[in-house]
Amino acid sequence: MTASVGVDVGGTKTAAALVDPGGKVWHRREVPTPARSGPEAVLDAAARLAADLLGGAGTGPVGVGTAGTVDPATGSIRYATDSLPGWAGTPVADALATRLGRPVRVTNDVTAAALGECWAGAGRDRRHVLLVAVGTGLGGAVVRNGRVAAGARGAAGEVGHLPAPGAELLRCGCGRYGHLEAIASGTGLAAAYAVETGTHVTGRAVAERAAAGDAVARQVLDRAGGVLGAALAGLVALLDPDAVLVAGGAASALLPAASVAYSAELPAGWADVPLLPATLGADAVVVGAARLAMDAPT
């Protein structure tokens, strides 16, 4: 197994890293994603980062974790939000393989993060993992027997669209109301705080205000964390994982309340399934994407 390159394509930034066979990041590159310039510009930016890393190391295949739902058979984008305009329908695997002259495998970014955490992070040595990524939105991925459970459409594990108590007045990123993402995400925190106070701030600002003693912000965080923890406890009974991992920029703010609700709601038969913070941070997607490339069939 040789070192490979993992690429993380997001609506704001695109990153790439050279990752060794043990999951260690050797070199990392990052640029703003030229999302408003269209898919070809995004692909060009990703290819330049990967080529820069490939040129100095003579490495093997490339893996990509990207925003959007990915067809696991073709590496094309089935669905994407407006964070990457025109991204739906883009043949990412084929387009980057043509640009780079080597094989490319593609998966969703949260799925890549789950692979990375199971390989070199908080899920190391665990075969069955549910990972939830709490950022601007809420995503999820399921790993079974060390491999991604893609589902029929490449979207297994998308926990954000579960019905959630307390979210009835909050709009999910899919456009509907009452979903888990609408309350337990950065966008959800901001929306809930606006409903309570009439003040519009970011989810990060809500967390900062809670830490500074804002009682309403604390209530919003505790409610969101409680709903998230209870939902994860129910999912444990459904999916039977070895562990549940929580990643993303809003994870640390929600984990305290989520952990309390998770422990309270977890069925007795799964009492030994831990709820853990992810540990790879910003490297999770690139590490997981690199692992995906290393595991490509020969």
Write the layout of secondary structure elements.
Elements: E1 4-9, E2 13-19, E3 25-32, H1 39-55, E4 62-66, E5 69-70, E6 77-79, H2 92-100, E7 104-108, H3 109-120, E8 129-134, E9 138-144, E10 147-148, H4 186-197, H5 203-211, H6 215-239, E11 243-247, H7 251-265, E12 275-277, H8 284-294
Parallel strand pairs: 1-4, 4-7, 8-11, 11-12
Antiparallel strand pairs: 1-2, 2-3, 5-6, 8-9, 9-10
Helix pairs in contact: 1-2, 3-8, 4-5, 4-6, 5-6, 6-7
What does this structure look like?
This protein has 298 residues and is an alpha/beta fold. It has two domains: 4-115 and 282-294, 2-Layer Sandwich (Nucleotidyltransferase, domain 5), CATH 3.30.420.40; 125-279, 2-Layer Sandwich (Nucleotidyltransferase, domain 5), CATH 3.30.420. 37% of the residues lie in helices and 20% in strands. It is built from eight helices and twelve strands. It has helices spanning 39-55, 92-100, 109-120, 186-197, 203-211, 215-239, 251-265, 284-294, and strands at 4-9, 13-19, 25-32, 62-66, 69-70, 77-79, 104-108, 129-134, 138-144, 147-148, 243-247, 275-277. It has a five-stranded mixed sheet with strand order 3-2-1-4-7. The chain has a five-stranded mixed sheet with strand order 10-9-8-11-12, sandwiched between helices. A hairpin with a 2-residue loop joins strand 9 (138-144) and strand 10. Helix 4 (186-197) packs across helix 5 (203-211) and helix 4 (186-197) crosses helix 6 (215-239). The longest helix has 25 residues, at 215-239. The chain is globular and about 55 Å long. The relative contact order is 0.16. The mean pLDDT is 93.
